[in-house]
Design brief:
- The protein has 170 residues and is of the alpha+beta class.
- Helix 1 crosses helix 2.
- The protein is globular, with a radius of gyration of 24 Å.
Length: 170
């Protein structure tokens, strides 16, 4: 019967008829999925997300690299709060990184073992943070989640020169 209908009515009306008969059973996105936010590492150069984690699972983001021009070790710590990436602490051993304490106005700095340890207070956060994958430096990120950790080198997420964007969204 279907074959006869397809022959006389044509393909598109037949498909429309099948959709009507099945009650337009088109899969729909779950409402809970639409409201769920994700911490995403997006490779803008490759135009794809290279990492996507439900934001409620992220407890801390740790970024570590050595500056290429003065070889100073830089460590930055972030948390997710209200859909933003909020800096909470940084450590470094070179004044060129923080330009003598001007990066975060509301912060407390202490010096320990030749390192500056800065506790950042009352920062509203960033909607996104952009990093360029270095050609000569090693950049690492560790994401602490409720039940696990994810560690990677930036070169695992793209090629030197690629732009990586950290953001929170749907």
């Amino acid at each position: 019967m279907l074959a006869k209908y397809l022959k006389t009515a044509g393909f598109f009306p037949a498909v429309l008829g099948l959709l009507i008969l099945t009650g337009c059973a088109v899969p729909r996105e779950n409402h809970a999925d639409r409201s769920k936010k994700y911490f995403t590492l997006y490779n803008d150069s490759a135009k794809k997300a290279v990492l996507k984690i439900p934001s409620e699972n992220v407890e801390e983001i740790y970024y570590r690299y050595v500056q290429s021009y003065d070889h100073g070790l830089i460590e930055e710590f972030f948390v997710l709060r209200n859909g933003l990436i909020v800096p909470v602490k940084m450590t470094y051993n070179t004044d060129s990184y923080d330009f003598h304490g001007t990066r975060y106005q509301k912060s407390a700095c202490e010096k320990k073992d030749q390192r500056n340890i800065v506790t950042i207070k009352d920062h509203k956060g960033y909607s996104e943070i952009k990093y360029r994958i270095g050609h000569t430096i090693e950049q690492e990120m560790n994401i602490t989640m409720k039940n696990s950790q994810k560690s990677f080198s930036f070169t695992e997420m793209g090629k030197p020169g690629n732009l990586l964007v950290l953001k929170v969204g749907r």
